[in-house]
Design brief:
Number of strands: 0
Strand content: under 5%
Distance between the termini: 52 Å
Order of helices and strands: HHHHHH
Helix content: 55-70%
Number of helices: 6
Mean pLDDT: 78
Number of domains: 1
Length: about 140
């Protein structure tokens, strides 16, 4: 039985926000594997994913202590990647000769920050209202 990593204690984020981003991160990692798996080495796909998560963590914890940010990053990455893959990605040194890949890393980080900001500012699960199909929600408010 695989034990998934737990988020760091004392996160200034609601458990619901963390859960929603965990789901988003898993789907992004799967998409990256499908999209880039045949073009890039596995370690490079993992690195793209960790850069995505880094952008997200910076957006979710902008004033967070680096140790807390790293803990959340490891938690999120560890839900999809093996611990060795996470460590390799965190210790990777860029070869600037592949400028397209360096730009892809920067783009992944930017997208991660955008996705996290959307999740953190989006509706909370308790405030969602079910909408019936083929019914105008504005007409129900009357």
């Amino acid at each position: 039985m695989t034990v998934l990593p737990r988020p760091p204690s004392f996160l200034p984020l609601s458990p619901d926000t963390v859960r929603r981003f965990e789901g988003k991160a898993r789907s992004i990692e799967q998409w990256m594997c499908q999209r880039f798996g045949s073009e890039r080495a596995e370690g490079q796909v993992d690195l793209l994913f960790v850069h995505y998560l880094y952008g997200a963590v910076k957006a979710m914890l902008p004033d967070g202590e680096p140790r807390l940010q790293l803990g959340l990053l490891r938690h999120l990455a560890g839900r999809s990647l093996l611990p060795d893959a996470v460590n390799q990605a965190l210790h990777f040194r860029s070869d600037s000769a592949d400028s397209a890949f360096v730009r892809a890393l920067q783009t992944a980080e930017t997208i991660g920050a955008r996705d996290a900001a959307n999740i953190c500012s989006g509706p909370k699960s308790g405030s969602l209202e079910l909408i019936e199909p083929n019914v105008n929600p504005k007409s129900r408010a009357r």
